Amino acid sequence: MSTTDAALPALPSGEPPRTTRPGGVFARPQTDTGWRSWVTTVDHKKLGIMYGTAALFFFVIGGGEALLIRIQLATPNGKLLSADLYNQVFTMHGTTMIFLVVMPIGAAFMNYLIPLQIGARDVAFPRLNAFGFWCFLFGGVMLNSSWLLGHAPDGGWFNYAPNSGVIFSPTHGIDFWNMGLLITGIASLTGAINLIVTVLNMRAPGMTMMKMPVFTWMALVTQFLLLFAIPVLTSAQFLLMFDRLFGANFFKTAQGGDPLLWEHLFWIFGHPEVYIMILPAFGVVSEIIPVFARKPLFGYPFMVFSGIAIGFMGWGVWAHHMFASGIGPISVAAFSMSTMFIAVPTGVKILNWLATMWGGKLKFSSPMLFSIGLVTMFTIGGLSGVTHAVAPADTQQTDTYYIVAHFHYVLFGGALFGFVGGWYFWWPKAFGYALNDTLGKVHFWLMLIGFNLTFGPMHILGLQGMPRRTYTYKNGYGFNFWNMVSTIGAFVITVSFLVLAYNILASRRKARKAQGVGTGRLTMAADPWDGRSLEWMLPSPTPAHNFDEVPVVRSLDEFWHRKYGEEEDGRLVRIAATEDVVQKGTNTDVHLPSPSYWPIVLAFGLPFIGYGLIYSLWFAVLGGICVVGGIYGWVMEPSVDPDAGHHDPEPGATEPEPSGEAAADEEAALVD
Amino acid sequence: MTDATATAIPHDAHGDVGVTAHHTPSDGHYVRVALFLAVATALEVILSYTALHGIALLVPLLVVMAIKFVIVASHFMHLRFDDKLLSKIFYTGLLLATGVYIAALSSLHVFAGK
Amino acid sequence: MRRLRSLTDIAAPSTTEAGIPVAVPDGESHGLSHATSTGISNEKLAMWCFLGSECLLFGGLISTYLLYKDKAVRGPKPHELYAIPFTSVSSFVLLMSSLTMVLAVSAIQRGDQRALRAWIATTALLGATFISGQVYEFSVFLKEGMGFTTNAASSAFFTLTGFHGVHVTIGIVMLLSVLVLSLRGRLPQERAEAVEIVGLYWHFVDVVWILIFTVVYLIK
Question: How far lies A303's CA from each of A215, A218, A247, A369, C174, in Å?
């Protein structure tokens, strides 16, 4: 390296440690092991792992709900679930999978990887990041607590008015849906602001926008979509909440309320939301495929610009969810056209992945298999999506299983395949051991087969006219066979994830035995896949301070170009041994953002405000005290512990301290 | 342009017409802007009391409103003097909002018959 | 020395003409650490992102009002009750609070703490005046038979203006916090940007009212 900025993060070492007691409440947490380190952490890597873990927890719940649905529908006249319970189960399955599984798994990757890929020590606002995670977790828990408190939401994940009103859904289920998702919305909004600022502002020297890895690019587009889409849902949810709890008249048809207003607001949010879920997975496979094809990504600028184009066009297609609602021929024609157009940038991406593989030295390890799974399965889902764009055809498909098949092909076949591939790919980087590749392949094939068995037949069922969201069907409609196939497929998927769970445990046990570390910390080589981007320069698992010295970036795929050069005939030639270009993780002089109790305190109050609005305002008072106390504790606490600095050599001098403004941001975000 | 200057005075490197955050307009300028805004508001109120109605009232009111909005954003919120990136982010949000909501309202026939 | 940059290259970190990053001597890297890739501070960028996001929140509420403003099965519609002269005065008050806010920012940029406190206090006072006016307006509407639940139009009206009022109230709390920080000597001239960012929020609340005043009150 021609330059060193090791001085960048370091305080003059040897300063005496000092414990600050901001507001005299909590001693500032100092430990970096044990449960307290997880509760108070502001480390983007720990938070990333926590996002992933919590999402897996909710995945088990949402998956269980899916199995209940499939068992109910396996045979005609299923008796497992009543109609009422079925409504709750499919509502919570959808809501959980979207808001508590796919989005947070994306957030897990983005939190963990963005700072590493742009050469930063952490995100721009570490405490805000922790706050976002706790909001997501508590919001999700609150939403699911409705199961225990009487009645889960039963209006579908979209909660169409007026069906979501008190008259048609008199239990508190939909109030839980409202409150829980308002709280996770705060998580999304703060996370979006945080990661946008991180990507724009915290890049290593030389890392121009067009040298950023595609994953970081897709994450940036995703965060902008969240930034602008979440408030639309928030405004709609406030209207619904005021209707249900305070007697407002937004969606009461007798008072002149217009149910289509809800549909518009919901889908103005809802369609960008689709891209919020899929773009991070696109980013993941755009990282994996070049590594296992040993070729640079084909058409990097096209990849970036098609991502941006999807981001923009995603705002102009929402009404294709409403073709059957009578919005009129002009609206239908306009949105039909725009929906067909949005297939173009998506097609560009698929072409580029194929062209990246074309002529490459393909290596079919588990991450690559899952990526190819995404490319193929998403293509099927994309094609069935284009058939929805044809409005007259869509009128026939609306509310049938054909739609269910379509969006599972893009969200399960797309997003989830990509994310699972990402787990296999970055697992060594996060945990210091690799997952067994053979078991990974078994997982992949079981998941691929199970997935197609489950959702493939739904195309047929849908075209045969089987309605969705209906708790059973009668014998003799010709639905029996394919429903049974579909249920069997769902169990194959379950088995495939059990294989993953076994793989995690077995691989860890094996690695521990091999390294002889007992229950201690596992480590492994920095660069197991011969990777391309900066995170592979770091030891596995990533040290707390990320980079010993912040790299100076000269090119796209910086790390690759430090290892390999090109001969005149274009042949790859190694110019440096991997061990010589990776960092050692030995810099102990780095001062990190200080852990804090306040994010969890602040977030903890929010669900109580929610419960308070539903049950008794006393809970809200309790929650309010928690929130206000949290904000003031947060503001009083110096963002930089005097004895453990930010990545900032002179804390306190001209220091742009996030506390006041960040908290102010949040105060505002809280009322949103 | 060497690296040192680029990083030491980032506003000069990226900012608009060399005006940095440390070189913002004078207080007198702000007072003049505020006077203009006050006059514009008065104009709006007067317009609403005239015999104008329908589109003839709507258009001038909306135009004055937009002018007021942009002037506050550009001068009081310093968008004119700050990095263009901030304007891009803010106006992206604003234009997205305008676009999607006008489309949604048209499809709900709010503007029909006006 | 501003060169044209490509659309995506919104913020190139330090590079030479050839696009090759330059080694920074150790001594200077202290200065470097404060510089962000864009030259904009994290906090300011974050606030602008947040305000961009708020546009869509208020857009949704304004649209709801536009859709429902004539939907009243019973009770009066909001625009039958508006007292335009009164609302014009309170709009003027809020508009002027933007002036005093910007003067406060200008004061701290000069390092003039006394002027800062005076202008911040004035801004908070003007904001409080506006809120009092809103509370008075609401109470009059209630007396005239238009409550939150009376009809769709009234629900939409109170939701929109209420959301705005909550934003103003939060702004006042932020202003008072700035005042306390300044009194305790924790707002040196170097931290002028903190006041500027609070100001951004305040001005945004003002521009939202510019929209509401015209779209909701003046257009019938």
Answer: 10, 9, 49, 21, 43
Nearest C-alpha neighbor of A273 from the set A97, A492, A47: A97
Query: What pLDDT digit, counting tens, does each position of A118-136 carry?
Result: 999 899 999 999 999 999 9
Tell whether A399 is covered by a domain.
yes
φ, ψ for residue A552, nearest 5 deg: -95, 125
Residue A504 lies in a domain: yes
Amino acid, res. C160: L
Q: Is the link from the previous residue into A162 a cis peptide, with omega within 30 of 0?
A: yes
* 3-state class (DSSP) for residue A566: strand
Q: Give the pLDDT confidence of C123-132 residue by residue, as tens digits.
A: 999 999 999 9
Helix (H, G, I), strand (E, B) or coil at A467: strand
Cite the DSSP H helix spans in A615-656: 617-636
Q: Do B96 and A315 lie within an 8 Å CB cutoff? A: yes
**Chains in touch with C (≥3 Cβ pairs < 8 A):** A, B
Task: Tell me which residue range forms the domain holding A519.
Answer: 282-523
Average pLDDT over residues B40-63: 92
Chains that touch B (3 or more CB pairs under 8 A): A, C
The backbone torsions φ and ψ at residue A564, rounded to the nearest 5 degrees and listed phi first, read -125, 140
* The pLDDT of residue A575 is above 50: yes
Decide which of C56 and A661 is more confident: C56
Distance (Å) from the alpha carbon of C161 to chain A's nearest alpha carbon = 13
User: Hey, are the CB atoms on A250 and C156 less than 8 Å from each other?
Assistant: yes
The domain locations on chain B are: 3-83
**Which of A389, A358, A397 is closest to A375 using CA atoms?**
A358
How many angstroms separate the most distant Cα atoms in chain C?
Answer: 75
Phi, psi of A524 (to 5 degrees): -155, 180
pLDDT (0 to 100) of residue A642:
56
The helix or strand, by DSSP H or E, that contains position A18, with its residue range, turns out to be: none
Q: Would you state the pLDDT for residue A375?
A: 97
Cα gap A585→A544, rounded to integer Å: 9
**Does residue A371 lie within any of the structural domains?**
yes
pLDDT for the residue A640: 60
**The Cα angle at residue A9 between residues A3 and A13, in degrees rounded to 5:** 115
Distance from CA of B96 to the nearest CA of A (A): 8
**Whole-number pLDDT of residue C205:** 97
Instruction: Please check whether residue A268 touches B, CB under 8 A.
Output: yes
Task: Judge residue C143's burial from the number of C-beta atoms within 10 Å of its C-beta, 0-12 exposed, 13-18 middle, 19 or more buried.
Answer: exposed
Read off the amino acid at residue A64: G
For the whole model, what pTM was predicted? 0.90
ipTM for the complex? 0.90
Tell me the per-residue pLDDT of C174-214, one tens digit each, with 9 for 90 and over.
999 999 999 998 899 999 999 999 999 999 999 999 999 99
pLDDT tens digits for C34-43?
A: 478 999 999 9
Average pLDDT, stretch A182-201? 97
Cβ separation B2–C16 shorter than 8 A: yes
Residues of A in contact with C20 (CB under 8 A): 206, 554
Specify the number of domains making up chain A.
1
Closest by CA to C21, choosing from C32, C7, C34, C6, is C32
Please, what are the domains in chain C? Answer: 42-218 (1.20.120.80)
Are residues B13 and C1, on separate chains, in Cβ contact within 8 Å?
yes
User: Cβ separation of C218 and B8 shorter than 8 Å?
Assistant: no
For residue A42, pLDDT over 70 is answered with: yes
Between CA B66 and CA B37 the distance in angstroms is 11
Residue for token digits 């997952």? A435
Helix axes C113-143, C84-110, angle to 10 degrees: 160
Structure tokens belonging to residue A396: 């026939």
pLDDT digits (tens, 9 = 90+) for A161-178: 999 999 999 999 999 999
The CATH code of the domain that includes A445 is 1.20.210.10
Which residue bears the tokens 């003409």?
Answer: C17
- The answer to whether residue A458 sits within a structural domain is yes
